[in-house]
């Protein structure tokens, strides 16, 4: 194998594929990155056997071939090279790198031993706008269930309908749902559960890019692909297994009504919860009292050993079933902070349903995102 | 050699030919899915394994399998499909959600999506006493052998006595034993609204097809079907379809089929065709046992005399027993000490002494008069006009039923009538309530007025 490539291109690719290398401990070769020179491209791949990433960059191929080399060494080394051309050559299972005044050899392993990353045969795809899709995914990805007791809750649920996709995650204490509307209708309706890890990688890799993302789906795998700027050849492919099982009927969780809805300045609300959190007990509880009459909320926390805190925040009541009744609900402050952190607008709508009913946070003027959280039981 | 042994022998041999890491990675969770006509299908956990075995080890695997069994001509690989192993999971779910932090969860997630079953309700947590022995035994028999023993099973009994618990327990038990069975639990109200929606969307057939391939169908509170003719008709077809295929049907109601008014005769006779089991009121010992079980479930403990006090005073509703227990638990958590009997008595005052006792003859007569748009003195005056006689009888019925007044007293109240008149009125109304839907409704509306 012999190929000449710009350092920038190689480095970009390594930064992307490097993420999944070395995650699987049972098979040592997975610490490596697979390098293939083919036609006019340099192809880098890595996998942890659940998720595979492939990256292509244009390069001048003098001789086709392949090798796997340790991901850590290669990526940290290439990162330090000057922004020049790099010549890569494989001889005797060793990678020779030649860049300006640098001559380096890295020992590799045979490419034949590297796992084959599966392909998806289906030609049909769904086209997505990368930026809003990744932003939407980022708003829910943190709320999947961490344990494997309910595998179907450990991933992000994507439900593609004709004109929109709903992205949902829940860990049974809180639930976030983001709806994205398409400009033009898509041809197929489908739904699947994406592992949280894959969702995270998608957000990391594509969040700063703009363009189109193609989604291919098969029975138990999904492929996300983005093309190169210069040619239609794919630049990045992310292929992942899907989580088996049926996602629960979560729509019944989202409260259809509320006892009171109050609009609050988001940043101040967030700050006051953070202040209150300092004095919360071991269950992370803070009490929020909504007073519809005075149009304000009171945030209380107390710890018998540390002390207590009380703060008041004025808002605007948009609707209340009972204007005079004060409603006090106890929440885990972490859950509130997590929800507020994903609300982009400056004003947040806070809806409460009594002491033990689910509460909802929504960005004001944006019906496409919502965050449902269960309170802590009052004892 | 069966397929399992075949695969074990293959694994035993192949481990000498490949590295340990490769063996551990690629052969984990593999098994022979099927063996037929010289073709062996290997189930693999994911696509990576599939690609790898197909492309790298296929020759080796084939060679070994062929040497073990000469008939084998071809080896294929297939990725495990969901559902094959998923069924083992639900049992473990319950325990893992137990934790001490009182963080509330979305209860909806625990309910099984297709069957609508709540795993909380099981036979283990169902307390058996003389009052529900028959129903429990019938339910248990049905769960053991769905479709064969008692079909349909009809369970009836009052509010809060465990009908839903029993129904769901059957469902949970069947799904635990035979996970392939399709089970559906629904309330008759949901069934009705499903029909209404399907009529609106012109796809009644589609709705009915949902119920066609169910193995165990449970419908709760069928008394609400009364008077809904179209729903009854569709339900009749669903019922027949399932019954002919020997699928289990389980129904619950708050009264026996005979007493459900406005129910089509052909449905009624079908309901009565299987087994009818009733749940009556729990006796003192059972109530005590229930309280103790509930307390244990909530991980609280109270002195025996308190539990006895609750059991002795709350007699007809198990849900109320639980409510009383919750009250005491809240007190205990709040004050960090167990309530003694005196405190328990004050705490439970409004649970036990419900406002029922606040009714008096004057209130009843007033409520009845207002309801029928009469004057109070009309009811008391001597008159045999039809529009007055009936309200008067209803008022007499209430006096007897709610206040336990003596018949001579009732007679005196209504303008010095004979006590036999009162007895006749009471019996007449009491009998009519069982069959006349409208009257039942009127009675409950008046009752609301009395206790308001």
TrEMBL record, chain A:
Q: What are the UniProt keywords, alphabetically?
A: Cytoplasm, DNA replication, DNA-binding, DNA-directed DNA polymerase, Nucleotidyltransferase, Transferase
DNA polymerase III beta sliding clamp central domain segment(s) = 145-249
What single Pfam family name could you report for this chain, choosing any that match? DNA_pol3_beta_3
Give every DNA polymerase III beta sliding clamp C-terminal domain span.
252-376
**Which GO molecular function annotations are given, in alphabetical order?**
3'-5' exonuclease activity; DNA binding; DNA-directed DNA polymerase activity
Per its UniProt record, what CDD domains does this chain match?
beta_clamp (cd00140)
Going by the entry's taxonomy, the superkingdom of the source organism is recorded as: Bacteria
Q: State where the protein is found.
A: Cytoplasm
Indicate the family of this protein.
Belongs to the beta sliding clamp family.
Q: What is this protein called?
A: Beta sliding clamp
UniProtKB/TrEMBL annotation, chain B:
Location, primary (coarse class): cytoplasm
Which GO biological process categories is it annotated with? DNA replication initiation; regulation of DNA replication
* UniProt cross-references to NCBIfam families, sorted A to Z: DnaA
Q: What is this protein's name? A: Chromosomal replication initiator protein DnaA
Domain writeup: Domain I is involved in oligomerization and binding regulators, domain II is flexibile and of varying length in different bacteria, domain III forms the AAA+ region, while domain IV binds dsDNA.
Q: What does this protein do?
A: Plays an essential role in the initiation and regulation of chromosomal replication. ATP-DnaA binds to the origin of replication (oriC) to initiate formation of the DNA replication initiation complex once per cell cycle. Binds the DnaA box (a 9 base pair repeat at the origin) and separates the double-stranded (ds)DNA. Forms a right-handed helical filament on oriC DNA; dsDNA binds to the exterior of the filament while single-stranded (ss)DNA is stabiized in the filament's interior.
Looking at the record, which segments are called Domain I, interacts with DnaA modulators? 1-87
Please list the GO terms describing molecular function. Answer: ATP binding; DNA replication origin binding; lipid binding
On whether Cytoplasm is a keyword of this UniProt record, the answer is yes
An example Pfam family from this entry, by short name, is Bac_DnaA_C
Q: How does it assemble?
A: Oligomerizes as a right-handed, spiral filament on DNA at oriC.
Provide the family line: Belongs to the DnaA family.
Extract the ranges annotated as region (Domain IV, binds dsDNA).
333-452
Q: Where is the AAA+ ATPase domain?
A: 149-281
Which UniProt keyword terms apply here? Answer: ATP-binding, Cytoplasm, DNA replication, DNA-binding, Lipid-binding, Nucleotide-binding
The record's region (Domain III, AAA+ region) falls at 116-332
Give me the residues that bind ATP, please: 160, 162-164
Q: What SUPFAM superfamilies does the database record attribute to this sequence?
A: P-loop containing nucleoside triphosphate hydrolases, TrpR-like
The organism encoding this protein is Candidatus Nealsonbacteria bacterium RIFCSPLOWO2_01_FULL_43_32
Per the record's keyword annotation, is Nucleotide-binding included, yes or no?
yes
Instruction: Give me the Gene Ontology terms describing cellular component.
Output: cytoplasm; plasma membrane
Out of the domains of life, which is the source? Answer: Bacteria
Q: Where is the Chromosomal replication initiator DnaA C-terminal domain?
A: 360-429
* Gene3D superfamilies reported in the protein's UniProt record: 1.10.1750.10, 1.10.8.60, 3.30.300.180, P-loop containing nucleotide triphosphate hydrolases
Localisation = Cytoplasm
Q: Which InterPro entries match?
A: AAA+_ATPase, Chromosome_initiator_DnaA, Chromosome_initiator_DnaA-like, DnaA_C, DnaA_dom, DnaA_N_dom, DnaA_N_sf, P-loop_NTPase
């Amino acid at each position: 194998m012999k190929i000449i490539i710009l350092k920038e291109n190689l480095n970009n690719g390594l930064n992307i594929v490097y993420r999944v290398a070395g995650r699987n401990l049972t098979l040592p070769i997975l610490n490596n990155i697979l390098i293939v020179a083919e036609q006019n491209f340099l192809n880098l791949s890595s996998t942890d056997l659940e998720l595979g990433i492939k990256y292509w960059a244009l390069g001048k191929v003098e001789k086709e071939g392949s090798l796997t080399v340790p991901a850590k060494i290669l990526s940290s080394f290439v990162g330090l090279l000057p922004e020049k051309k790099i010549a890569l050559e494989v001889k005797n299972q060793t990678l020779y790198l030649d860049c300006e005044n640098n001559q380096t050899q890295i020992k590799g392993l045979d490419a034949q031993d590297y796992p084959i990353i599966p392909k998806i045969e289906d030609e049909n795809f769904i086209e997505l706008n990368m930026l809003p899709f990744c932003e939407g995914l980022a708003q829910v990805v943190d709320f999947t269930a961490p344990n494997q007791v309910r595998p179907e809750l450990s991933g992000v649920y994507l439900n593609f309908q004709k004109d929109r996709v709903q992205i949902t995650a829940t860990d049974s204490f809180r639930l976030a749902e983001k709806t994205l509307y398409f400009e033009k209708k898509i041809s197929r309706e489908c739904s699947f559960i994406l592992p949280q890890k894959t969702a995270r990688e998608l957000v990391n890799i594509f969040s700063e890019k703009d363009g189109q993302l193609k989604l291919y789906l098969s029975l138990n795998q999904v492929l996300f692909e983005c093309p190169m700027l210069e040619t239609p050849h794919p630049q990045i492919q992310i292929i992942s297994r899907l989580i088996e099982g049926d996602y629960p009927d979560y729509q019944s969780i989202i409260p259809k009504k509320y006892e009171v809805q109050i609009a609050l300045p988001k940043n101040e609300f967030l700050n006051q919860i953070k202040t209150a959190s300092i004095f919360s007990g071991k269950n992370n509880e803070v009490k929020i009292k909504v007073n519809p009459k005075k149009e304000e909320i009171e945030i209380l926390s107390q710890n018998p050993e540390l002390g207590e805190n009380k703060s008041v925040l004025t808002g605007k009541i948009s609707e209340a079933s009972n204007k005079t009744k004060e409603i006090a609900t106890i929440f885990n402050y972490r859950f509130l902070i997590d929800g507020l952190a994903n609300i982009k607008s400056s004003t947040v709508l806070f809806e409460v349903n009594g002491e033990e009913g689910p509460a909802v946070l929504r960005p004001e003027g944006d019906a496409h995102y919502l965050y449902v959280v269960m309170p802590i039981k009052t004892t | 050699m069966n397929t399992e042994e075949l695969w074990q022998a293959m694994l035993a041999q192949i481990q000498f030919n490949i590295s340990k890491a490769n063996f551990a990675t690629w052969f984990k969770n593999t098994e022979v899915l099927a063996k037929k006509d010289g073709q062996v299908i290997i189930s693999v956990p994911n696509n990576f394994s599939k690609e790898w075995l197909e492309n790298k080890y296929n020759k080796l695997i084939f060679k070994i399998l062929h040497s073990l069994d000469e008939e084998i001509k071809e080896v294929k690989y297939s990725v495990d499909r969901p559902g094959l192993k998923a069924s083992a999971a639900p049992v473990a779910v319950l325990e893992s959600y137990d934790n001490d932090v009182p963080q509330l969860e979305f209860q909806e997630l625990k309910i099984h999506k297709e069957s609508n079953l709540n795993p909380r309700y099981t036979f283990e947590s169902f307390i058996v006493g003389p009052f529900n022995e028959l129903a429990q035994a019938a339910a248990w028999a049905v769960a053991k052998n769905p479709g064969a023993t008692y079909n349909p099973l009809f369970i009836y009994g009052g509010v809060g006595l465990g009908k839903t618990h029993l129904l769901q327990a059957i469902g949970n038990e069947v799904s635990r034993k035979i996970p392939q069975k399709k089970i559906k639990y629904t309330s008759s109200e949901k069934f009705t609204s499903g029909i209404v929606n399907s009529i609106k969307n012109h796809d009644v057939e589609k709705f009915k097809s949902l119920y066609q391939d169910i193995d165990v169908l449970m419908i709760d509170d069928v008394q609400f079907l009364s008077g809904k003719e179209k729903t009854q008709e569709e339900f009749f077809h669903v019922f027949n379809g399932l019954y002919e295929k020997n699928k289990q049907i389980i129904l619950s109601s708050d009264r026996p089929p005979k007493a459900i008014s406005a129910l089509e005769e052909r449905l009624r006779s079908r309901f009565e065709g299987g087994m009818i089991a009733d749940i009556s009121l729990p006796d003192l010992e059972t109530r005590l046992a229930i309280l103790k079980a509930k307390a244990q479930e909530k991980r609280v403990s109270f002195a025996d005399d308190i539990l006895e006090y609750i059991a002795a005073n709350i007699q007809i509703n198990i849900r109320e027993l639980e409510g009383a227990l919750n009250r005491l638990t809240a007190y205990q958590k709040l004050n960090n000490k167990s309530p003694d009997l005196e405190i328990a008595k004050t705490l439970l005052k409004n649970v036990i002494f419900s406002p029922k006792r606040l009714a008096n003859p004057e209130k009843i007569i007033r409520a009845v008069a207002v309801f029928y748009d009469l004057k109070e003195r009309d009811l008391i005056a001597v008159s045999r006009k039809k529009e007055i006689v009936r309200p008067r009888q209803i008022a007499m019925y209430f006096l007897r039923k709610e206040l336990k007044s003596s018949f001579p007293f009732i007679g005196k109240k209504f303008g010095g009538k004979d006590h036999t008149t009162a007895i006749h009125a009471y019996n007449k109304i009491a009998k009519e309530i069982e069959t006349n839907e409208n009257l039942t409704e009127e009675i409950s509306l008046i009752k609301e007025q009395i206790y308001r």
